[in-house]
Specification:
By secondary structure, this protein is α/β, with parallel strands linked by helices. The chain contains six helices and eight strands.
Protein backbone atom coordinates (compact mmCIF):
# COMPACT_ATOMS: atom_id res chain seq x y z
CA UNK A 1 0.00 0.00 0.00
CA UNK A 2 1.48 3.37 -1.02
CA UNK A 3 1.17 5.88 1.78
CA UNK A 4 2.31 9.19 0.28
CA UNK A 5 3.98 11.28 -2.37
CA UNK A 6 7.18 12.84 -1.03
CA UNK A 7 8.88 15.61 -3.00
CA UNK A 8 11.75 18.06 -3.10
CA UNK A 9 11.37 21.31 -5.04
CA UNK A 10 13.63 24.34 -5.37
CA UNK A 11 11.61 26.61 -7.61
CA UNK A 12 8.15 25.05 -7.29
CA UNK A 13 7.63 22.98 -10.44
CA UNK A 14 8.09 19.58 -8.79
CA UNK A 15 5.81 20.72 -5.99
CA UNK A 16 3.14 21.56 -8.57
CA UNK A 17 3.47 18.09 -10.09
CA UNK A 18 3.27 16.54 -6.61
CA UNK A 19 0.06 18.44 -5.87
CA UNK A 20 -1.47 17.43 -9.22
CA UNK A 21 -0.53 13.79 -8.65
CA UNK A 22 -1.94 13.96 -5.13
CA UNK A 23 -5.27 15.06 -6.59
CA UNK A 24 -5.26 12.25 -9.15
CA UNK A 25 -4.22 9.48 -6.77
CA UNK A 26 -5.77 10.63 -3.51
CA UNK A 27 -2.37 10.24 -1.80
CA UNK A 28 -1.12 13.04 0.46
CA UNK A 29 1.94 14.98 -0.75
CA UNK A 30 4.69 16.07 1.64
CA UNK A 31 7.89 18.08 1.29
CA UNK A 32 10.85 15.81 2.09
CA UNK A 33 12.65 18.65 3.84
CA UNK A 34 10.12 19.46 6.49
CA UNK A 35 6.63 18.19 6.18
CA UNK A 36 6.59 14.39 6.21
CA UNK A 37 4.84 13.04 9.33
CA UNK A 38 7.27 10.83 11.31
CA UNK A 39 4.81 7.92 11.26
CA UNK A 40 5.42 7.55 7.50
CA UNK A 41 9.07 6.59 8.01
CA UNK A 42 9.81 3.30 6.26
CA UNK A 43 6.54 3.46 4.34
CA UNK A 44 6.05 3.00 0.60
CA UNK A 45 6.10 6.24 -1.33
CA UNK A 46 6.34 7.87 -4.72
CA UNK A 47 9.32 10.22 -4.70
CA UNK A 48 9.43 13.31 -6.95
CA UNK A 49 12.54 15.46 -7.26
CA UNK A 50 14.12 17.99 -9.63
CA UNK A 51 17.03 17.02 -11.85
CA UNK A 52 20.29 18.70 -11.01
CA UNK A 53 23.45 17.96 -12.97
CA UNK A 54 22.05 14.61 -14.07
CA UNK A 55 20.92 13.47 -10.60
CA UNK A 56 17.59 13.65 -8.77
CA UNK A 57 17.74 16.06 -5.86
CA UNK A 58 16.87 14.40 -2.56
CA UNK A 59 16.63 10.87 -3.94
CA UNK A 60 19.24 9.36 -1.62
CA UNK A 61 17.70 10.92 1.46
CA UNK A 62 14.26 9.69 0.40
CA UNK A 63 15.54 6.19 -0.38
CA UNK A 64 17.26 6.00 3.01
CA UNK A 65 14.11 6.95 4.90
CA UNK A 66 11.32 5.34 2.84
CA UNK A 67 10.63 2.44 0.53
CA UNK A 68 10.59 4.31 -2.74
CA UNK A 69 8.25 2.42 -5.08
CA UNK A 70 8.37 4.91 -7.96
CA UNK A 71 10.48 7.94 -8.80
CA UNK A 72 9.48 10.95 -10.87
CA UNK A 73 12.44 13.02 -12.03
CA UNK A 74 11.51 16.56 -13.08
CA UNK A 75 13.84 18.44 -15.41
CA UNK A 76 14.01 20.86 -18.30
CA UNK A 77 15.36 18.32 -20.78
CA UNK A 78 13.13 16.93 -23.52
CA UNK A 79 11.62 13.62 -22.40
CA UNK A 80 13.02 10.50 -24.04
CA UNK A 81 14.01 6.97 -23.01
CA UNK A 82 17.63 7.94 -22.48
CA UNK A 83 16.75 10.27 -19.59
CA UNK A 84 15.07 7.43 -17.69
CA UNK A 85 17.98 5.07 -18.38
CA UNK A 86 20.50 7.67 -17.25
CA UNK A 87 18.55 8.27 -14.04
CA UNK A 88 18.38 4.53 -13.37
CA UNK A 89 22.14 4.18 -13.84
CA UNK A 90 23.02 7.26 -11.84
CA UNK A 91 21.02 6.15 -8.81
CA UNK A 92 21.32 2.36 -9.27
CA UNK A 93 17.57 1.96 -9.55
CA UNK A 94 16.59 -1.51 -10.71
CA UNK A 95 13.59 -2.56 -12.79
CA UNK A 96 11.62 -3.40 -9.64
CA UNK A 97 11.04 0.32 -9.21
CA UNK A 98 9.32 2.59 -11.68
CA UNK A 99 11.10 5.66 -13.00
CA UNK A 100 9.24 8.44 -14.80
CA UNK A 101 10.56 11.65 -16.30
CA UNK A 102 8.48 14.83 -16.38
CA UNK A 103 9.39 18.08 -18.10
CA UNK A 104 9.19 20.79 -15.45
CA UNK A 105 10.00 24.46 -15.79
CA UNK A 106 12.64 27.10 -15.50
CA UNK A 107 12.57 30.38 -13.61
CA UNK A 108 16.09 31.76 -13.48
CA UNK A 109 14.91 34.73 -11.39
CA UNK A 110 14.11 32.34 -8.53
CA UNK A 111 17.61 30.84 -8.53
CA UNK A 112 20.45 32.22 -6.48
CA UNK A 113 24.25 32.23 -6.51
CA UNK A 114 26.02 29.40 -8.29
CA UNK A 115 22.79 27.72 -9.44
CA UNK A 116 21.71 30.94 -11.18
CA UNK A 117 25.13 31.41 -12.74
CA UNK A 118 25.31 27.83 -14.04
CA UNK A 119 21.74 27.80 -15.36
CA UNK A 120 22.28 31.01 -17.32
CA UNK A 121 25.21 29.29 -19.00
CA UNK A 122 23.39 25.97 -19.53
CA UNK A 123 20.29 27.72 -20.90
CA UNK A 124 22.37 29.72 -23.39
CA UNK A 125 24.08 26.54 -24.57
CA UNK A 126 20.76 24.73 -24.90
CA UNK A 127 19.29 27.57 -26.98
CA UNK A 128 22.33 27.54 -29.27
CA UNK A 129 22.15 23.75 -29.77
CA UNK A 130 18.39 23.43 -30.15
CA UNK A 131 18.11 26.42 -32.50
CA UNK A 132 20.45 24.66 -34.93
CA UNK A 133 18.17 21.63 -35.34
CA UNK A 134 16.24 21.53 -38.61
CA UNK A 135 13.40 19.70 -36.85
CA UNK A 136 12.52 19.53 -33.18
CA UNK A 137 10.33 17.14 -31.22
CA UNK A 138 7.59 18.75 -29.08
CA UNK A 139 9.81 18.09 -26.03
CA UNK A 140 12.74 19.85 -27.69
CA UNK A 141 10.47 22.78 -28.63
CA UNK A 142 9.39 23.00 -25.00
CA UNK A 143 13.00 22.87 -23.81
CA UNK A 144 13.96 25.62 -26.25
CA UNK A 145 11.12 27.76 -24.89
CA UNK A 146 12.16 27.09 -21.28
CA UNK A 147 15.81 27.82 -22.00
CA UNK A 148 15.15 31.01 -23.97
CA UNK A 149 12.35 32.65 -21.98
CA UNK A 150 11.65 30.42 -18.97
CA UNK A 151 8.20 29.10 -18.12
CA UNK A 152 6.48 25.89 -17.17
CA UNK A 153 5.54 22.58 -18.79
CA UNK A 154 3.69 21.37 -15.69
CA UNK A 155 0.31 19.90 -16.65
CA UNK A 156 -1.92 16.94 -15.84
CA UNK A 157 -1.30 15.39 -19.28
CA UNK A 158 2.40 14.90 -18.47
CA UNK A 159 1.35 12.81 -15.48
CA UNK A 160 -0.80 10.45 -17.54
CA UNK A 161 1.80 7.65 -17.51
CA UNK A 162 2.31 7.92 -13.74
CA UNK A 163 -1.44 7.99 -13.15
CA UNK A 164 -1.92 4.91 -15.38
CA UNK A 165 0.80 3.05 -13.48
CA UNK A 166 -0.80 3.97 -10.16
CA UNK A 167 -4.21 2.83 -11.40
CA UNK A 168 -2.63 -0.42 -12.59
CA UNK A 169 -1.51 -1.20 -9.05
CA UNK A 170 -5.18 -1.92 -8.58
CA UNK A 171 -6.59 -2.99 -5.28
CA UNK A 172 -3.24 -4.04 -3.83
CA UNK A 173 -1.42 -0.68 -4.25
CA UNK A 174 1.71 -2.86 -4.10
C1 LIG B 1 21.89 23.94 -11.07
C2 LIG B 1 20.82 23.29 -11.92
C3 LIG B 1 21.09 22.10 -12.58
C4 LIG B 1 20.10 21.48 -13.38
N1 LIG B 1 20.40 20.31 -14.01
C5 LIG B 1 19.44 19.71 -14.78
C6 LIG B 1 19.71 18.48 -15.43
O1 LIG B 1 20.76 17.87 -15.28
N2 LIG B 1 18.74 17.96 -16.26
C7 LIG B 1 17.54 18.57 -16.44
O2 LIG B 1 16.71 18.06 -17.18
N3 LIG B 1 17.23 19.72 -15.80
C8 LIG B 1 18.16 20.31 -14.98
N4 LIG B 1 17.86 21.47 -14.32
C9 LIG B 1 16.53 22.08 -14.48
C10 LIG B 1 15.61 21.73 -13.32
O3 LIG B 1 15.59 20.35 -13.06
C11 LIG B 1 14.18 22.19 -13.66
O4 LIG B 1 14.20 23.58 -13.73
C12 LIG B 1 13.13 21.69 -12.68
O5 LIG B 1 11.85 21.92 -13.23
C13 LIG B 1 13.24 22.39 -11.35
O6 LIG B 1 12.24 21.87 -10.48
P1 LIG B 1 11.82 22.61 -9.14
O7 LIG B 1 11.11 23.88 -9.54
O8 LIG B 1 10.90 21.68 -8.46
O9 LIG B 1 13.06 22.88 -8.36
C14 LIG B 1 18.82 22.08 -13.51
C15 LIG B 1 18.55 23.27 -12.81
C16 LIG B 1 19.53 23.86 -12.01
C17 LIG B 1 19.19 25.12 -11.28
Amino acid sequence: MLSAIVYTSDTGYTKQYAKLLAKTTGLPAYDLGSLVPPKLKGGRIIYMGPMMAGAIRGYKKAADAYRVRAVCAVGMRAPDDSVVNEVRQRHHIGEEREVFYLQGGLDIAKLKGFKKFIMRFVARQAVAQLSKLAQRTPGQEAMLRLASEGGSCVCDENLAEVAAWFKGLGKTHA
